[in-house]
Give the backbone structure.
Amino acid sequence: MRTAYQYRLRPTKQQVIEIDKWLSMLCAQYNYLLADRGNWFEQNRSPVNACPLVCHLPELRDNPDYYSQKKTLPQLKKTHPWYSEIYSQVLQDVVKRVKVTFDRFLKGDSNGKRSGKPRFKARNRYRTFTYPQIKEGCLQGNQIALPMFGKVKVVLHRPIPGGFKIKTASVTKKADGYYLTLSLEDKTVPEIKPDFNPDKITGIDVGLKEFLTTSDGETVSIPQHYRKAQKRLRVLQKRVSRRKNGSNRRQKAVKQLGNQHKKVADKRKDFHFNTANHLLSKYDVIAHEDLNVKGLARTRLAKSVLDAGWSSFLLILTNKAVNAGLLVVPVSAHNTSQDCSTCGEKVPKKLHIRWHDCPHCGCSLDRDHNAAINIRSRAEGHPVLKAQRLLSNSRIGCEARALSVLR
């Protein structure tokens, strides 16, 4: 199992200068390698026997791939000696980032979804460098020893769990300072609980009136962090737009704006974690709608949908459930609000109608509560729950047969 812990870094003034210098050089190398791949792709994207009649055939060369670009790094350190200051594996990780970016453009990710054409990064947009391998025992008290960089002070607000091994370390520059992200590996794989309590299965319906409603009727109010911060963000954005490009005052205003956006993001993330912990402490199985959040973010409700952060919340909920050996089940979102949770008949209603009244069976309850009950019912067809239900039924049958024999 892999997990990530993030800590605040407290570098000295000289170390801040050094980190910024590394990021600047790595950004330049990233753009150079990306340009090399892009140029080859533009010049060789058509076969020789299928090119237009009037064209310029470039000098043919091999496709720059991951290994050929890694081989250029020793020569880079000879022609540009200042790159020798950077740890070799950190430079190699830049080549890997270029490869991943270009592969997503040409082939797509694991789900087959392709990204747009890669673009060059500005210096202020290249914020992270990674050590793909780091020695065990790199953490010494409240300091971390980074190869060819030195020891940097870390705020260890929580200890690393016993048995976890540090695999990679990343240094990231954010609006309010520098952070260290440690990727940890634990050899023990958590197993799903062998028996789920049928009373601890729930369905949740996420929404914009309430953040979520459970099938038990419990609601969690929506905090709307971004909308509450809009007034302050508007003032800071105007301040940035009035400053002269390239001036120190503009940089200061941009930093203030970035800090405010980070505060909003941190509040939302904290709310998501607290809500996920609350649900997982009460339930063993949680069912939710398999939503197309990207599609919803293109509607008139885009600001509210993105402010709620459903995708982030469901990802956090799923990851924490896996670590705890619990189960989170996505189900089809089709007609969960329209179907009656009691009789199953379809009761059409528009979005502004927030109450469900069934003319067939007389069921009357909140629209979101009705949807949550439908979501819970659909989750009962999950293979894991089916298998455990069959197992429990067989056990009950065996116990009944044993009792009849004893009688």
Observations:
- DSSP finds eleven helices and 14 strands in the chain.
- Residues 198-396 form one domain.
- The chain has a mean pLDDT of 88.
- Residues 393 and 399 are 10 Å apart (CA to CA).
